[in-house]
Amino acid sequence: MLRIPLQLTVRSSIELAVVGILTLVGLVLILGTLDEYKSGRAFNRAMDNYAAGVFEDVYEGVEEATQAKPSYDAPRELHAKLVIDEGYRNPAKFAEARDTFEQLRQRQEAAGGRASAAVLIGLAVADLEAARAQATKPEAPAAAVAEARKRLEAALTLYPNSGDIHVNLATIALLENDVARCNKEIAKVEEAGDISIDALPVLYNLKGLVQLREKHFAAAGAEFEKVKEFAPEAEVPDLNLAAANAQVVLAADSDPRLADLAATSLRSLIGRLAKSKSPVLPRLCEAMASYLLKRGAPADALQRLAEAERAGKLTWQGRFNQALAQYLVVRAARNFRRDPLAGPVAELAQALTSAKTGRRERLIAAAVLGTIDAETGNIKRAIAHFESAAATPTHPPDPFIPRALARVHMSLGALHYSTGAPAKAIEHLDKALPNADDEQKRQISLFLKQVRATPVIRDFTVKRDKLLTDYDLQVSANLSLPGSPKPLAPEDATLTLTDTLGGTTRPLPFRLNGPLLYAVAVNLPQGRFRVELTLRDYLGNKDSVTSETLEVDREAPRAVELDPAPGTKVPKLTLVRCRLEDTLSGVDLEKVRVMLRYPLGSPIGSRQLVMAGRYQFPSADGAIPRNTPITSELRCPLPADKLPPGEYKVLVHAADTAGKAGDTEWSFTLAPQQQEAPAP
Fold first, then answer.
1. CATH architecture of structural domain 335-451
2. Which pTM was predicted?
3. Whole-angstrom distance between the N-terminal and C-terminal Cα of the chain?
4. Could you give the 3-state DSSP secondary structure of residue 315?
5. Which tens digit of pLDDT belongs to each residue from 426-439?
6. Which candidate, 232, 233, 189, 228, places its Cα nearest to that of 208?
7. Surface-to-core class of residue 334, CB atoms within 10 Å of its CB (0-12 exposed, 13-18 middle, 19+ buried)
8. How far is it, in rounded angstroms, from Cα 447 to Cα 483?
């Protein structure tokens, strides 16, 4: 979630420190003059009222003391301090305070040769605040800061062991963004050992501000807590402690336990500051809202942002986080209509084009808009927004950016996958891997495994099955495209039927029922058939299966190359010949029978030449003994008795191994040649 770049800025933090320093001016003055002027009852009464915060009576006492003894400087110093205090409510008073301190400086130098340290510090601070009040920019003008430093350095030559002057020089160094010199001045305070007890809260406040600048948030909080020990009613440490806690809860690399402790402290501080209507309250509420967004509590974040809006105008960052929180609340309600999202969409779209938008916010705005588009069905625009987020520069280094880009590339992978662009999906997932955390890497690995998974064909079955005829074929299979972003479709599969005898291949129509494929081929012709199924995915991967060859044997065996040839006349007959053939199954020779029918009127009607696949008569030359098993080349010997002339018929009965049987019948005539009678 976003981390708002909110903190007490260098200027506002130092401004708070200056408030503490100005308090020091009066307190140092009191320590230096109280014993000398304790007899001045009016001044003492003024001091009592100052301590009690009754400032109207302080003015009265100061005026009375001044009139009673015009040579007293203490009342005039206190008066100048009161004017500075009023300057934080009315900046025009700073010039009056500067003039008063200048008069005191001249008065004291004329009387004693040098002004008091309190007057010199007061003059430097009043002069600086007067310049700040007249400046058009919030930052202290560089020239005024440099002049204040010169005044304090001059005062240090008169009071070299004054820890109070070093405290003010440390503040000036921080105003000049010179943290190293600030630390040196703080070290000199500790070396000098001469610092008023009332300046200690200012010192600890400065130490806390330095720790804030160096992002040592826990250490800063400890220093601000010390301030509270010396000045329990002061608001300055509360504000700076709140800034330290805000930095902890907003830091991207904060320990969650420390962030939760800081958030608890920040809640308490916000409650206290709300009573005083502190001007920094809106920023602290925004920081708390950002923390709540990080902790997945967008509804609570919206409440804090509403509190910030009541206390003052939201910053751009606050509006951005408000839009983000509104989106998350809508998303949690699963209400993805455009109406409730109109406000967040407009704010986030504006962030994409605003010059104020940093890399983080621009990336988040684009990613959230892409998510809204995806959830409302505009995938094309969603991809465009996520591509914009993916183009976020990674330099200068920011730990948030690479982690966020990992999530962006994962989203792009899912979007491209859903549109049937797996190559782009894999490209983005590969880009996400280097910066992904362990859980994201696990998700990406599973996703890539799915995307790259090859097609699978299971339970492929091809069988002869009588549907309408005895020559029907049935095909079934279970298809799977585990990496496909789309449901299985007919174009993903190819089913063909090949006749290996005829050398032809044709598509076989099929239908899909979910992952199940079913096809039939009805009344197939004679042949040997093979079915091939191929399943392809969007990457070109495929799985193929081929059935065993299935024979469709529609024809019975037949006798060919008949001898004697049908219809012919032969002078003599010793063998009947033919060849048995069957295209597919093959002849079952044990079932072959051959019968020879004699001419009508013959004493014998017929003879079985072959029975159960064996010759029933031996051949005249003895080459074929009786009961010799036949081959497909039949050479059937005839009985030895004399064959009468006339028309003979041969009946060949043959069956194939599949059980189909058929008869071949033909006739011929035996016409022996008449022998001529010998001449008388």
1. Alpha Horseshoe (1.25)
2. 0.46
3. 139
4. coil
5. 889 889 999 888 88
6. 228
7. exposed
8. 9
